[in-house]
Design goal:
Length: about 120
C-alpha cells in the first residue's frame, strides 16, 4: 500500500490492481488464494490499515495551523469561547515589541446551541 501512496495512484487504479492480482493468483495457484482480498476495502481491513487524517483550523490572517478539536473546545474560565490566534510574526526579534495576531479562529453559532463553528 505504501507504493500506491508514494506515487499517488488513485484509489480506483489501486482497486483494479488488487482485483487483477487476485485473479492472477487464483489462475496460477488455484483455490489457495480464494481468501486473498478482492477489494481495497477488504485489503485495508485484513492488513489493519486506516486512514489517519488530521484536521486543522487555519488562521485566516497569518495561516498558522491549530488542532481543530482544540479550537472547537477552547474554554476560558470554564466557558466555551472563540479561540484567537496566538502567532507572533518574528518572536526572536528583540528590537521591537512582540505582537500576537489575535484573529478569531472560529465564530460562535447560535443555531448550534452556542457551539463553536470553524
Amino acid at each position: 500500500m505504501s507504493f500506491c501512496k508514494r506515487f499517488n495512484i488513485p484509489e480506483t487504479a489501486t482497486e483494479a490492481l488488487i482485483q487483477f492480482i487476485k485473479l492472477l493468483l487464483i489462475e496460477i495457484g488455484g483455490s489457495n488464494f480464494e481468501e486473498f482480498p478482492g477489494s481495497l476495502y477488504l485489503a485495508r481491513n485484513v492488513l489493519g490499515l486506516k486512514d489517519q487524517y488530521h484536521n486543522f483550523a487555519a488562521c485566516p490572517k497569518c495561516h498558522k495551523l491549530y488542532n481543530k478539536k482544540e479550537v472547537e473546545e477552547f474554554q476560558q474560565n470554564g466557558n466555551l469561547t472563540v479561540m484567537k490566534c496566538s502567532h507572533v510574526k518574528f518572536p526572536n526579534l528583540t528590537s521591537r515589541r512582540l505582537k500576537q495576531c489575535q484573529t478569531p479562529l472560529a465564530e460562535r453559532s447560535t443555531l448550534l446551541y452556542g457551539r463553536i463553528k470553524i
